[in-house]
């Protein structure tokens, strides 16, 4: 992929890590927040290819957009970004529909017959949404180093060309790639984040990732 303009909607760990990863690949990145000031130190450290803005500015800026906001706030943040700014673009959806209740294990607020990935695709119907990066912790999203070799990034989406582009990005970031089909595959990838989280809670370790073995 030629050097591109990447708009990242999200100021948390995932937004910052992926934005830095794209800067590392030589792309120009605008990371967005309702409060861009909170990203300024990140942008200063990330270099001249990095800038900050509102969700709307990041969505307008990017040829490729990354969704890295709290799952329950995805619709709100996308609307702040401006629905029209998603038209025709590859949208990498790293969100998970996590719900947290005190004293209860983490759960999903949508599943089985629908998913956040599908809700997002319906919200921005002219965008090419690819669910990706939601099955691993942010610490291992870029250049994952494991003794057994590169782990696999699972992705899904309706547009084959968009998935090729996102798959290429994943490979540049050091991943194997497993395409499981259309965006409805989010119904299965989003629960995988809970497998990842529950394993982490049980082992008190957060450096694990999935790999699909073939023979
Ligand atoms: N943390 C991980 O390792 C990990 C791994 C895989 C997937 N994920 C998923 O990736 C996404 C980002 O995770 P994260 O841990 O980086 O951060 P997060 O705390 O889940 O999300 C932070 C972002 O959500 C935005 N946000 C929160 N409430 C909002 C609202 N009411 N309206 C609009 N925007 C709102 C924040 O906006 P402001 O910038 O304006 O504050 C911020 O940009 C989540 O969906 C998460 O489930 C996380």
Characterize the main sheet: 8 strands, mixed
The structure class reads alpha/beta
Elements, N to C (H/E): EHEHEHEHEEEHEEHEH
Determine the N-to-C terminus distance. Answer: 31 Å
> Low-confidence parts, pLDDT < 50 over ≥5 residues?
none
Give the count of helical stretches. Answer: 7
Helix content: 25-40%
Nearest-angstrom radius of gyration?
A: 16 Å
Strand order of the largest sheet: 3-2-1-4-5-8-9-10
Task: Describe the structure in brief.
By secondary structure, the chain is of the alpha/beta class. The chain has helices at residues 13-24, 40-46, 55-61, 74-81, 116-123, 160-172, 186-203; strands at residues 5-9, 28-32, 50-53, 64-67, 90-93, 98-99, 107-108, 128-131, 152-157, 176-179.
Which helices and strands, and how do they pair?
Layout (H helix, E strand, L loop, with lengths): L4 E5 L3 H12 L3 E5 L7 H7 L3 E4 L1 H7 L2 E4 L6 H8 L8 E4 L4 E2 L7 E2 L7 H8 L4 E4 L20 E6 L2 H13 L3 E4 L6 H18 L12
Parallel strand pairs: 1-2, 1-4, 2-3, 4-5, 5-8, 9-10
Antiparallel strand pairs: 6-7, 8-9
Helix pairs in contact: 3-4
NADP nicotinamide-adenine-dinucleotide phosphate (NAP) binds next to helix 1 and helix 4.
């Amino acid at each position: 992929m030629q050097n591109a303009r990447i708009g990242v909607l999200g100021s948390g760990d995932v937004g910052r890590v992926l934005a830095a990863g794209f800067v590392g690949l030589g792309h120009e990145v605008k990371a967005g927040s309702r409060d861009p000031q909170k990203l300024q130190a990140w942008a200063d450290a990330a270099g001249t290819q990095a800038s900050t803005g509102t969700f709307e500015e990041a969505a307008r800026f990017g040829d490729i957009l990354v969704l890295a906001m709290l799952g329950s706030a995805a619709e709100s943040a996308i609307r702040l970004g401006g629905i029209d700014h998603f038209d025709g673009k590859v949208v990498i959806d790293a969100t998970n529909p996590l719900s947290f209740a005190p004293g209860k294990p983490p759960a999903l607020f949508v599943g089985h017959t629908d998913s956040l990935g599908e809700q997002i695709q319906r919200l921005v119907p002219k965008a090419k949404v690819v669910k990706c990066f939601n099955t691993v912790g942010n610490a291992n999203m870029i250049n994952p180093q494991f003794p057994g070799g590169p782990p696999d990034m699972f992705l899904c989406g309706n547009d084959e060309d968009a998935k090729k582009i996102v798959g290429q990005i994943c490979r540049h970031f050091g991943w194997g790639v497993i395409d499981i089909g259309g965006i409805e595959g989010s119904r299965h990838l989003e629960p995988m984040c809970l497998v990842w989280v529950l394993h982490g809670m049980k082992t008190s370790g957060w450096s694990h990732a999935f790999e699909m073995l073939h023979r």
